[in-house]
Amino acid sequence: MKAAVVRKEHFNAAHRLHNKKWSDEQNQRIFGKCNNPNYHGHNYELLVKLVGEVDPDTGYLFDMKLLSDIIKEEVITPFDHRNLNLDLAEFKTLNPTAENIAYVIWHKLRNRIDEKFDLKITLYETERNIVEYPAD
Amino acid sequence: MKAAVVRKEHFNAAHRLHNKKWSDEQNQRIFGKCNNPNYHGHNYELLVKLVGEVDPDTGYLFDMKLLSDIIKEEVITPFDHRNLNLDLAEFKTLNPTAENIAYVIWHKLRNRIDEKFDLKITLYETERNIVEYPAD
Amino acid sequence: MKAAVVRKEHFNAAHRLHNKKWSDEQNQRIFGKCNNPNYHGHNYELLVKLVGEVDPDTGYLFDMKLLSDIIKEEVITPFDHRNLNLDLAEFKTLNPTAENIAYVIWHKLRNRIDEKFDLKITLYETERNIVEYPAD
Amino acid sequence: MKAAVVRKEHFNAAHRLHNKKWSDEQNQRIFGKCNNPNYHGHNYELLVKLVGEVDPDTGYLFDMKLLSDIIKEEVITPFDHRNLNLDLAEFKTLNPTAENIAYVIWHKLRNRIDEKFDLKITLYETERNIVEYPAD
Amino acid sequence: MKAAVVRKEHFNAAHRLHNKKWSDEQNQRIFGKCNNPNYHGHNYELLVKLVGEVDPDTGYLFDMKLLSDIIKEEVITPFDHRNLNLDLAEFKTLNPTAENIAYVIWHKLRNRIDEKFDLKITLYETERNIVEYPAD
Amino acid sequence: MKAAVVRKEHFNAAHRLHNKKWSDEQNQRIFGKCNNPNYHGHNYELLVKLVGEVDPDTGYLFDMKLLSDIIKEEVITPFDHRNLNLDLAEFKTLNPTAENIAYVIWHKLRNRIDEKFDLKITLYETERNIVEYPAD
Fold first, then answer.
1. Contact between D14 and E83 using a beta-carbon 8 Å cutoff
2. Which residues of chain B does D102 touch, with a Cβ-Cβ cutoff of 8 Å?
3. For testing contact with chain F, the best of E15, E19, E128 (most F CBs within 10 A)
4. Contacts of C127 in chain B (CB under 8 A)
5. Residue numbers in D near B60 (CB within 8 A)
6. Mind listing the pLDDT tens digit for each residue in B70-93?
7. Is D43 on the interface with E (CB under 8 A)?
8. Searching chain B, which residue's CA lies closest to the CA of residue A55?
9. What is the rounded CA–CA span in Å between residue C130 and residue C44?
């Protein structure tokens, strides 16, 4: 019996979109108000989806309490109430777009979730801007 | 023209996670507070998705009023305001995890929906814990 | 500067509506499917509102982390994943309608929140059935 | 790095379900209250999903401001506060079911989005009736 | 024990904002796209709030099933899937703004709810435009 | 006919809670992770409520398009994608708690809305932390 489970968590963070290789003019032209040098921020909503076999003894695909704990250790504790550009080594050179944040989160969780489960991240930067990684 | 339609319904039920083959200690260790012998409960949100061809005469993939009626007959009427463990034959031996509830609902609806439509269930136990069956 | 702050928390519980002084027939007639002897359940959403003066030094009306901790101690820990009728002394004789649950929560929190703050409870039994105590 | 981005927009419109080739009796039997000759209406929520490669220089799969502008030009401006049957050439002969609205929107946007991106539409007619085109 | 209960229901309708005493130019200037002669529509969300004493025998302020039935009879059945301007006698001369719709609903329900309960209507025309009647 | 209208808008901003008169230790003790010197951020949801008389000619209490424009000029344009502490004169010395942000927004809008309307602000910092100013 193959199924999927999804756990929803959230974190609040500041960020700024900026490519250090570009001039200020080019950054402003491409990223607009998201390039504000003083940062802005979001309430990020994070959905973590695992696909795999349901254990017939527990009826669980994955213990959701354990999944929540792993997400908190890997993502919520280091990301919540932080400045993604300044406080997180992952975004020292990587631009913290929603696409790249989802990519970083996927890799951090991939290390902690058994390879027998497929893993997919959906990240809501706002309720109108959403990213999925990897794509279906 | 192949598309998908999704109908959302809801039911409120009590349940308890418990494996009758295990000791009380093991049940408590695996299921924690979800093992409370006196039960707890949820407002379950149910999404039923059909994939198939749109009828060119009606412009419908499936009549959503009919889909709602089928879901009510097969799921909402028997599940709503019930204790899943005690009141439903399906869970006399099957542990009513969200995964297993989605599996049972899928089979009940599969009997009523023409095989030319693919069928998928998404079940929200809470807004933070979600199950999909089958997996994409 | 008088304002209000609201903190939202949630708990999942089983309950049954039943008046022990009435016959089974009367209970069934008045409470319908909510009278199921095997219980049903809900994801309760709880809003706790405090009205008072904002502290000019902190800019806080009340520390929301502290408010969350008080709600967890007084309500979430004892109510979450429980059967309100069987597991909670407050509902041994009091029928756990949403009205009465809000009333009990208000009294539990009133003991912990300084009287200089007005206190109001809004309880969502479902997204369609909501209770406020006290009334505005 | 292949990912997906989703942009959410909304429009409010009137419509009526009706097949001009059928008698009034057949229209009423098939479409019920949705056949009201005086129309009814909805707040449509539209999700537009693009799947493709993330640009390593910008960290963007697609500029979401540009995607929002394209959706506004192609869908929101012509559809919002309109009668789909009377005001839109696309539905002069095509019945404006949610399935057909999603199909029309997909074609309008497909002309504006580079073919290197896969395109998918999800349309909420209400929070309970949802259509996806094309199907996964 | 004085409290409040709120019941949420919904209906989907077409309407047009128009003052028959004004010229077309003035109607267009004041109501803009809401004046479209072919109508547009909304998914209206309706909250009905009653304030009063909780019955100590039932623990109910008001039977929510009965409240839902009254709302359905007085509002949902006549308003749902209708054109407010054309299909409803109440709006033959009264402009169906959200303010006036709330006012009409209040009067229809006031006739059915015992005067010992205060009655208040909140109407969501969209999630961004909301009306309350009467004001607190 | 006295009623209320509510308009919902949103902005995304970075902020940091900090009292310049206090030591770093005291700021950390009182504000915890909200004191992060590199800032964090939120998607703020703003509800602006006006209470007053409905105009019998228009059926409007207030033109919601005009209200939206005023909120955009006074709040969304200056606040959105900004750092409240660094970019806004209002918070150079005032700590940008949700209470104080609501207070500042109220005063900015009060200057633009005719005194015949009562004005109230509800600000969602997250869906779990909400402030109202003034209190009812």
1. yes
2. 3
3. E128
4. 43
5. 97, 99
6. 999 999 999 999 999 999 999 999
7. yes
8. B99
9. 10
How far apart (Å, rounded) are the C-alpha atoms in residues D111 and D121?
14
What average pLDDT does the structure give for chain F? 98
What residues have CB less than 8 Å from C77, skipping those under 6 apart?
none
In this prediction, the residues of chain D whose per-residue pLDDT falls under 70 are none
CA distance A93 to A71: 23
In DSSP terms, B12 is beta-bridged to B43
pLDDT tens profile A47-103: 999 999 999 999 999 999 999 999 999 999 999 999 999 999 999 999 999 999 999
Of the candidates D71, D102, D76, the one whose C-alpha atom is nearest the C-alpha of residue D11 is D76
Long-range CB contacts for residues C99-105, cutoff 8 Å, separation at least 24? C99/C131, C99/C133, C99/E1, C99/E3, C99/E5, C99/E54, C99/E59, C99/E60, C99/E61, C100/E54, C100/E59, C101/C44, C101/C131, C102/C131, C102/C132, C102/C133, C102/E3, C103/C133, C103/E1, C103/E3, C103/E54, C105/C46, C105/C74, C105/C75
Please indicate if any CB of chain D lies within 8 Å of the CB of A129: yes
Which strand (E) or helix (H) includes residue B106?
helix B98-110
For residue F131, give the nearest of C5, C63, C118 by CB distance: C5
CA distance C130 to E133: 18
Going by pLDDT thresholds of 50, 70 and 90, the confidence category of residue B97 is very high
Taking alpha carbons only, the member of F27, F24, F103, F128 closest to residue C65 is F128
Q: Which domains, ranges and CATH numbers included, belong to chain A?
A: 2-15+41-133 (3.30.479.10)
Residue F131 contacts E where some CB pair is shorter than 8 Å: no
Between C39, C43, C127, which is nearest B14 by CB?
C39
> Residue A91's CB: how many other CB atoms inside 10 A?
21
